[in-house]
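User:
Hi there, any thoughts?
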Amino acid sequence: MSLIEASTKEFGNITVFLHSLGSFCYRIEWYSKMTGTNKGTGIK
């Protein structure tokens, strides 16, 4: 069971994805429509 449900949010030219990697681990990824750049980071 995860504490946070997966979600996608739009902030202007940036899209942010949040999803669970397990019970207490999450991953945040973002994508820039302007530059085509993306990045991800894990959170425990």
Summary: The radius of gyration is 11 Å.
